[in-house]
Structure formats: C-alpha cells, structure tokens
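Newbie here. three chains, one complex. Structure please?
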Amino acid sequence: MGAGKHETYTLTVSIPLLLTLVDAGVRLGSTTVLRNLSLELAQGEVLGIEGPNGAGKSTLLRVCATLLPLDIGSGTVFDADLGSPGAQSVRPEIGLLAHQPALYDELTLRENLSFYARLLGCRQGRVDELLEGVGLSAAADRRADQTSQGMLRRVDLARLLLMEPRLLLLDEPHAGLDSAAEKLIAAVVADVIAREGAAIIVAHDTSRLADVTTRRLRLERGGLT
Amino acid sequence: MKTRYVLSLLALAALGYGFYLSGQHPPDAVQGEYVRIINVHVPASWVAFAAFGGTLLGSLGWLATRRRRFDAFAAASAEVGVFFTALSLLSGMIWGQVTWGIAWDWGDARMASTALMFFIYLGYMGLRRGMPDETERAKRSAVIGVLGFLTVPLSYFSVNLFRSLHQTQSVRPDGWQIESGEIVTSMLINVAAYTLVYLVFVTWRTSQGMVPDHPELGSDLAGDAVVAPSLGGRDE
Amino acid sequence: MTFWKAAAVIMRKDLTVEGRSGEVLWITIPFGLIALFLIPLALPLDNPLLQRIAGPMYWVILLLFGMTIALRQSATGTTPQREALRMLGVDAAARFTGRVLATTLLSLAFALVLAPATVVLFDANLPSGWPLLIPIVMAVTLGLGIVGTVAAELTRGLRTRTALAPLLVAPLAAPLLVAAAQATESLSRGDSILLPALIIAFTVLGLAVIGVLTAGPLEETQ
C-alpha cells in the first residue's frame, strides 16, 4: 500500500431472521383480517405492534404462532415454512400469551403450573421458583377462579418462562397488571432476548412499552405501517 | 354441462321405463299386487347405501388431499342419500304394513341399520349447518363421514346376531324368494334408474358445492367495521 | 414426553378438574338415576316385565346419559387452554387419548352406581356368571368415551352443540348398545357371550383407530 491510501472494509453481520411474512393475508369467515402484510423479525428484536380494535393484532400473533394458516402469501418461523405441516415442529420454541389466560379454573395456581411443567418435563422445583419469581408464592394454593385477572396474568407469564421460548408473542400483556408487575413483562422479554430470541408485543398503545421495544409498527386496515 | 344434460335425460327415460315395468309385471304368488313396492324399496335402499359409501369416499378423499371437490361430493352424496334413505324406510314400512300387518319389524337387521344410517346422515347435515368456515366444516364432516360408515355394518351384524340367536318372530317369512323373472328385471331396471337419478343430483350438487363460500380476499376488512366511538369525545 | 405419559398427565388433569367441579357426581349420576326411576313409574305394575327389561334399560340409560359425561363442561376447554397445549407440541392423539381415558373412568363410575340401582329398582335377578359383565361394562364405557370425545370435538364452538352432539353419539354407539344387551341376555340364558363380546371389541377398536387418526386433523387447520 502506498502512503496516504486507505483501504475500506465493509463488515457485514448477518442477523438471523426468526420470522418473516411476505404479502400475508388471512380471512376469517367472510371477513378479511390481514392483507398484504409483510414483516421481518430479527433475532434480538422486540417489536411493538399497536392498532385499533379489530385491526387484526391477535390474528397476526396466532399466524406467527403457526396456529392459524395463511390464506395468501407466505412466511417462515425459525426457517419452517408457515404453509407446511412441518411448521408445527417449531411450536415448542414459541411462547404465546393470549388475551385470556390458559389456566384451569378448578386448579390452584401451583397445580396449573405443575400441569404444564409435567408436560414439558420440567422439575417441580422450577414451579415453586417461578411462583416466587412472579410474586405469587403466598397465593399458590388458591384456585384460579378465586384469583384476580392480574394474578392469572402473572401465572400465565410464569407458564411462558417454563417453556423457555425463543420467540415470544404477547397479546396485551399489561392488561390487569399493576405497575409493580409490569416489570415482569420486561423481565420475561429480557429472558428471551438473552437466549438469542425475539419478541412481538401487541397492544392498543405501545407507548408504555417504549423501554422494552426496539421497533414499533402500527397495524391498521389489515396492513402494517 | 352437456354430459349432465344427457345424464338427466337418460335418468328420466330410465325412471319412466322402470315405472312402466313396475305396472306391467305379474303379481307375486305370495304377496300379490303389494310386491310392486319392491320397485321403490329395493332401488331406494341400494342408492341409500351407495350414497353413504359416496360420503365415505368423499370424506376420505378430503382428509387425504384437502381438495374442495371431495368435500362437495361427500356433502352432495349425503344430501341425496338422506332422501333415498327416508324413501327406503317409508316404503319398507308401507310394505311391511300392507303385506304382513306390521310397519316396523325389529327382527329385520337391515331396517334397523338403515334407520341408524338415516340418523347419522341427519347428524352429518346438522353438523354442516351453522359452520361458516369452509375448512372447519369440511374437516368435521369428513370425520363423521368416516366414523358413521364404520358403525352401520357393525350395527347390522349386531342386530342380526340378536335376531338369529333369539329366533324371535320376524314378521317376514324367512326364505321368501321372488319367483318371477319379470319382477326381478323390473326391480333391476329401477335400480339402474334410481342410480342415474342419484348421479344426476350428486353431480349437480357437487358442482354447486365447488363454488367457494367466499371469494378471494376482498375489501371488506374486519377493522373497517370499528370506528372511533362518538361518546366521550376521545379520539382513537 | 412419551405418548402415554402425556396422555396420563392430561387424564389426571381432567379427573382433578372434574373432581373439583362435581358435574358427574352431582348432576349426571342423579340424572341417570332419575331416568331409571321414571321407567317403572311409566309402566303398569308388572314385576316380570320389569325384570325382563332391566338389562336393556341399564344399557340404554348408560348410553343416553353416559354420553353427557363426554360432553361435560369441564372437558370442553377454552381456546387459550387448547392453544397452549398445541403450542407445547403435545401430540394431538395423546391429548385425545388422555381425554378419552378420563371420560371412560368417569363413565365407569356412573355405570357402577347405575348397576345396583337397576337391580334394586327393577327387582332384577343377576345372572350367574355376572362377573363376566364387568369387562363388557368396561369396554362399553371405553367405546362411549371415544365416541363422546369425538362428538365433543366435532361440535366444539357450535351453538347447536347441546342437541347435536347426542344426535351424533347415539347412532354411533348403537352397535355397543345392541351387543351389550345381547351379552346380558345370553348370560341370563346360560349361553356364550363370545360373539357379542367380539362385536364390542371390534367396535371399540375401530372407534379408537379412527378417533386417534383424526385427532390431529381435527385440531389443526392445515
């Protein structure tokens, strides 16, 4: 090299995409819920999606969770084609928090978590650790139908932590949670990111998630802006 | 279209000829004129069971391929089949009443299993109603289409077993044979005619069922139905 | 997690939930007993007639009221609960099997309560060799459990579920009913029950195979 000459090198870092949607469309009955929707979610990203009622936010999450097929377009999650039955194999990597908790009214909070722990092959000690972690040790033996929505939401979050997912899909996670418990959301998200995962959080108003999200989009009229 | 038109004409002609033969053949030595009901009952029974088999094949086809044509065929076959099953039961009851004095013979395994098949058809059609989602409708009907088919022969065998072990009085004389070749010919022509009618109706209903409930993704978006509330004066 | 382990976990959960809700113990069983009670009330006083129909009435009541056990509220499951199980990757056939086993055990409890009630109310004479009916009862309740669970799945989310599900179950369970009644009759005559037992076994096997094979397609939409 001659004096004064500078070589420029470009370093390209490829960040794996955990989720992609290309021109995705979903119809439920006679109504179009999502259309022309394209999205990429990279490892380490926390995407906040906000939108009005009926915009299709919950439907989008269920598509990403492989629970709902696409009627048009294509997509991948963990490199599995969303249109193929093989997409079901990646479900254990995905943690979905729905509007309503996936808990059984007649079981206690501990029994609910233990049920999922047994199916996951987790040790029972982990259940007690998580109940402690979400601040519900004292209420662990209370039946689910005798607890508040906020408490159930905490247990549902604990259920997700049991799974140790790499893709987190949260539907209105703040609903029913007090401000002390809201930091749970951040903790759960941080846990997933630490395991080289990503998250999508859906809410009417994602401004509360400003500290957690790395990117925010708006879902309106079936498409993302 | 042309094929269906030709098929319809053939079916009509066959029905007419079958009806003519029904009136022409001699009465039976045992049953007299009442034997003419055989020209309705046997063909209807044959089509009822064939249609049930059609529903089974369509259901299996859909489960294997997820193609709409199989679901449309299964449903069409069930719709046509339920009519012929009802006709089979009704004609059987009339035949029993006028010939042997009793409308329903509990010793007859065929009547019992035909009646069960009728209820399975009704359940199948009841299941399809009120399910707007095409895929869910096809999927659930396919399962009942397969499950239902399993139980009909099993019911036949179990009722037959009950009858044979008990030797309870069956009102129909055992071993009644059709003596006249003309009655057999008439019956077979009617079987062919009813089969053609089945094919005409099933192809017609299948082609109707092939039209998707909902066209491709349209402009009626779910979100458009929700607007900012006027109460409270707050913007969305 | 193996197939049978997952099925056992789900069965245990279903039984615990039902034990706490008490729908089978406090509603289904009394309902069946009342039905059993009403039949002799509707008949003229005729003990030989009652004794004659005791066996068949037992099986009819078991079928008609036993199917409500599969359709009980606690077995239905909400959408989030079902989706959570799907997301765990638990095999649909294992989930189906777990639900069937729970329903079968509850139906068996119903059958065991109904049996002495039938003997008493209908003044029935137990046939010698009546212990042979025990495996018959177990097989019939298993068949009912399979059919009922499938019907519950087929009618999930439908407004007409309450009437439609029994309409689906009843004809499908008919071979079980006839063969079971035949077995009872044969036993009281001192005849062999091999043939009806074979029909029941074959029916249950066929239902089980179809139920397990269609469990996955019924859950998934692709």
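Moderator note: The radius of gyration of chain B is 23 Å. Residues 68-100 of chain B form the longest helix (33 residues). Thread marked as resolved.
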